[in-house]
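Data deposition worksheet. Section B asks for the primary sequence of the deposited chain exactly as it was used as input, without tags or linkers unless they were present during the calculation. Section C holds the resulting structure in token form. Section D is free text for depositor observations; keep each observation to a single sentence. Incomplete worksheets are returned to the depositor.
Section A, Depositor: J.P.
Section B:
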Amino acid sequence: MRFRHSKEKEEAQLGARPARWSSEFRWARAFVCLTFLATLAGIALNSQQPAAPRVIQPTLPPAINSFPDPRDQLEMRQEQNKKQNFEAANAERKKQIADDSVRLLKLAADLKAEVDKTTKDMLSLKVIRRADEIEKLAHDVKEKMKLSVEGN
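Section C:
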């Protein structure tokens, strides 16, 4: 029996692997190595003791976590007191405005009645004084209204 001379036979005689098997063999060897590494990693993970459950704590900036210092607390209290004082003063102004408006209405009605009593050509000194008083009271009411609206 005579063999034909071929590359495969020559490689077989020399002990080398056939050329067509070399790329397949490399892939198989890489697959086996990866499988072996994955198995080792799995064993290593399973052999570790289970870790304590991780507690998630929110991370807040230090300013939120800490209490305000005494100076800041004092400033906050002073601001609250100012606001309360302003609200109380504003309520008092509103009450005074309402009272003055009622008084103004009464004075205006009285002035009208007195003007109706006087003659067409002559006004009494009492009527002029009452008109002056009404004018001053109206000016005061106007100023009080400005104060309550501005907030200063």
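Section D:
The chain has two domains: 7-47, 71-150.
Helices lie at 7-14, 19-47, 62-65, 70-117, 125-150.
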